[in-house]
Amino acid sequence: MLTTALLLTTLATATAAAPAEELPQKKEKGIDAIALPLVSFNSDLGFTYGGVAGAYLYAPGHSPYQHGIAIQAMFTSRGQQNHYLRYDGPQLIGPMRLELRLEYRRELRSPFYGAGNVSAQDFKGDENQERFNYRKGSPGAWLRLRGRPWGENHPFQSYVGYSWRYTEVDTFDTSLLNEQKPVGIEGGPTGQLSAGVLWDTRDNESDPTRGGVEELSLRVSGSATWSRYQYAGVTLSERRFWRLGPRFILAQRLTLDMLFGEVPFFEWVNTGGVSTSEGIGGMSSVRGIERNRFAGNIKAFSNTELRVRAFDFRLFKAPVTVGGVAFVDLGRVWHPDVVDGPWWKWHPGVGAGVRVARRAAVVRFDWAMSPETGRSRVYLNFGHMF
Fold first, then answer.
1. What is the pLDDT of residues 174-188, one digit of tens each?
2. Nearest-angstrom CA–CA distance, 317 and 107
3. Cis omega before residue 182 (within 30°)?
């Protein structure tokens, strides 16, 4: 019911030209505009309320769109705030793509279970316990320039970027964080320089059905980048899509992220790259497991999805696809000087969901369960997981 309501609100504000298959001699143009309240439930964050607005502006010669703009004000019943303004210009500066984001995050209950793959074994599922939380505030911003130096139709891409964030850490007296006092408990600024390369052969960036994208990303943080901490990171990612007949797509993502040096604990859960994730645990890494349940300097996870495009219809002269997905996620971490368990100790999540797509706009709803604990979680978000 909620997913349908969100989709109808999204589509009711949209205007678009006739689809390319009807007018093959013309490029697609127009606008998909989104303006809707955030009234939903997420197992990681609780009840969500606020508002989000955005738009994709299309023009001939610009793919997948000319401009993408989004603004959000979000609050949750678990005391989290996430406000941002984001811009995406795929071909703003000649062939270069400019992406930037200003944001403020505040969490009255930010999870911390310690480091390692078998951390916090006394955790019984109550995410609101002060023992496994701390208070965090983190204003920040980032920008990135991405381009195709060998031509717009060549799969090779490269990018450079910079991000800065100031993290405020406030511990509870009885918290595990206050007990362990890892690097980063003082908080402070973290500035990062990043660079990376991609090989992208996907047929569609927003809703791919074939091809894939491989990525290598590096990030460095130190005094020269206005950071309190000195560390570096490497991210390797593979996303691959196979069409299994006219309505089935097999999608696979593999991610390995490694951090070295004086890494603050609040960076243990973050990955680098164009599409960042956090975990292990949560809607961007292993669904069904509590958000950021397992953290460490080295993270690896796998996401396998069987996507079904059940049926299509047209609304405002553009195609809408409704479908479903079944998925299996796996992940684990390694961290120095802690016990990580045997090599085969991977944390799984399984589930199913619904997808509704209109051009670059995708609404997703997932239900997931952790076979280890038997606990289940639900997620409502925009865009495919990968």
1. 999 999 999 999 999
2. 42
3. no
CATH code assigned to 83-382: 2.40.160.50
Maximum Cα interatomic distance, the chain, rounded to a whole number of Å? 67
Listed by start position, the domains of the chain span 83-382
What phi and psi, each to the nearest 5 degrees, are found at residue 11?
Answer: -75, -25
Residue 298 token pair: 């080295």
CA distance 310 to 83: 34
Residues across the chain: 386
Q: What are the phi and psi torsion angles at 284 (to 5°)?
A: -110, 0
Query: What is d(CA 42, CA 127) in angstroms, rounded to the nearest whole number?
Result: 13
Q: Which structure tokens are listed for 311?
A: 């049926």
For residues 145 and 340, give the distance between their C-alpha atoms in angstroms, rounded to a whole number. Answer: 37
**pLDDT digits over 325-379, tens only?**
999 999 999 999 999 999 999 999 999 999 998 877 788 899 999 999 999 999 9
- Contact between 339 and 115 under an 8 Å Cβ cutoff? The reply is no
Are 180 and 171 within 8 A, CB to CB?
no
Q: Which of 115, 37, 41, 44 is nearest to 72 (CA)?
A: 37
Quick one: which H or E segment has residue 106? strand 96-111
